[in-house]
Amino acid sequence: MSVSDLFKPLTLLHGPAMRNRFMLAPLTNQQSGRDGFASEFDQEWIRQVAQGGYALVQTCATHVEETGIGFDRQLGIFSDAHLPGLAEMATSIRKGGGLSAVQLHHAGHRANPMLGGIPAPASDYTVPGVRALPTEAVERIRDSFIAGAKRAELAGFDGVAVHGAFGWILSEFMSPQFNDRTDKYGGSLENRARLTLEVIEGIRRACGPDFQIGWRLSVERYGLLLEELRDITADILDRELIDYLDLALWDSAQIVQDGAFKGQTMLSVFTELPRRRVRVGAAGKIMSAQRAGQLMDEGCDFVLIGRAGILQRDFPLQVEANHFYESPKLPVTAEYLREGGLSERFINHMRGWQSFVIRGSY
C-alpha cells in the first residue's frame, strides 16, 4: 500500500467518515486549569492540530469524576460548567475539517490525593490503607463515564474515546493482578471486563445514533494477559460495540516475547481478528510517512500520531506533501518546541518524557 492510500476516506459505523487515515492520539499535556477547565493553552493547542490535516482529533485524557484525577492540570468533563470550554474545542476541530472525540478517563487506584483525587482501587491490597471500591461505587463511576459522554455530545463532539489503557481504572479492573473482587466485577474474564462493557454499552444507549465510540487498549504491564485481552477484543469487534479500536503500543513494531503468540508482532495479534465494520488503528513510534504506510500493510485501518504530532502539529499535511517525510530526530530543544507553538506548560510536561527534550535546554 502506498503512502497516498493514507489519504483515502474511512467510513465508521456511526456518524461521518474520517477524511483520511490519520488520527491524533490523546496526548496528556498538563496545561488545563486546576479545576478541570480548558485553558487558553488547551484552546491554542487544539486550534493548531485542528488545522493539521487530521481526520479525527482526540483531546487529552479528560477525567469524568473530580476525584478521579490522575495528574496536575488535567482537563475535566465532570461538570456542566466545563461545557463552554469543551464546546470551543469541538468548534475549532470542526472548523479544521476533522472529527472530534473526548478521551474519557478515571485514574482508579492511581487517583492523586495531592490533587484532590481519591484512590479507587479494585482490590483491598492495591493501595495501603484503602479498601476496594464497593459495588455501588463501581456503578457510580460507570455512570460518570456515561455522563461524561453525554456532556461531550452536548458540547458538540462527534464522539468519545474510552480510556482502557495503562492501568487506569478500566484497565485495572481487567487485570487479574489488580482485581481480586468476588462481586460481579471480579473473578472471571467476563466479570473483570464487565465495567468496560457496561461503560461502552451505556454510552451507546445514552447518546445519539451518530455518536462515535472509540476504545483505547494497552496490552503491557499492570498484570494484563495478552490472551485474555485478545478474547475480549474479539467479542467487542464481533458485536460491533465500538467504532474504532485504538491499540496503544509503545512501539508499533514490537514483538511478543512469550506465551501463545511468541514471535508475532503485537499488532498482528489483534489485526488478524475478524473486525466486521469496526476500524482498527495503532500508535507507537510512528515518526515517518513510510512507517505510517507500512502499518496499513500490516492490517491497520488508520494510524494514531503522538510524538510526531507534538514535534510537527501538521504531520498529516507534511506527509501529504512529502511521501518520504521524517519527523525531527529526538531529543529536541525546548526552544524548538516553543517556536512551534507549544506552551511552557506542555514543554514542562514533555521534559518528563525520556529523551524528548534536551536536558538543560531553555
TrEMBL record:
Species this protein is from: Pseudomonas beijingensis
Top-level taxon of the source organism: Bacteria
Residues of the NADH:flavin oxidoreductase/NADH oxidase N-terminal domain: 5-322
Protein's name according to its UniProt entry: NADH:flavin oxidoreductase
Keyword entries, A-Z: Flavoprotein, Oxidoreductase
Keyword Coiled coil annotated: no
Any Pfam family the entry gives: Oxidored_FMN
InterPro entries: Aldolase_TIM (IPR013785), NADH_flavin_oxidoreductase (IPR051799), OxRdtase_FMN_N (IPR001155)
